[in-house]
Amino acid sequence: MKDKKQSKSFFIAINYCLSAGLIIPNIFYILISIVISTLINKNNYFPINIVPLAIWVVGAWLGSIYAANYLKKTYIIDNSNKITNFATVYYFFFFLIFHALYQNILFHKIIFTLAGTLMLIGQTVVFYILGKIYIKNNK
Fold first, then answer.
1. Contact, 84 vs 133, CB < 8 A?
2. pLDDT tens-digit profile of 88-136?
3. How far is residue 123 from each of residues 36, 38, 60, measured CA to CA in Å?
4. The three-state (H, E, C) secondary structure of 93-123, written as one string
5. Which of 135, 130, 134, 136 is CA-nearest to residue 60?
6. Strand, coil or helix: what is 26?
7. Measured between alpha carbons, how far is 100 from 110 in angstroms, rounded to an integer?
8. Alpha carbon 111 to chain centroid distance?
């Protein structure tokens, strides 16, 4: 069995943010959208509605479970609250920048849409709650 690493909270938070907030939910979303699009014989993925958000929540939930278990096995976690807070801030600012670039490049707008802003806030809250539930101290 490998020894657990002692790392800074911000590094553990980056690891959690990337896996639980970005990689796993997006892979899950892409796979599910391809399956559903194939089943309903449409070339586009989803219309803008609640379905993508629901799929993201399930992906974030699965990602949080996986990432928290990985962190528990790999790192010594002294302060889970600090890691959750760092990860949530990283997550929020990453998607804030992504949302701003998406709006500016694709729609030539600098202002945020109300729906996009509410989705950003909602996803950040869900990400924070999942982090609080699954990241635990293990020292």
1. no
2. 999 999 988 887 776 665 555 555 567 777 888 888 999 999 999 999 9
3. 22, 27, 9
4. HHHHHHHHHHHHHHHCCCCCCHHHHHHHHHH
5. 130
6. helix
7. 7
8. 23
**In the numeric block, which tokens belong to residue 7?**
């790392």
Rounded (5°) CA angle 104-31-20: 70
Q: Among residues 102, 96, 94, which one has the least CA distance to residue 13?
A: 94
Amino acid at 108: H
Q: How far from chain centre, in Å, is Cα 128?
A: 10
Tokens 């002294």 -> residue: 78
Residue type at position 23: I
What percent of the chain is predicted at pLDDT more than 90?
47
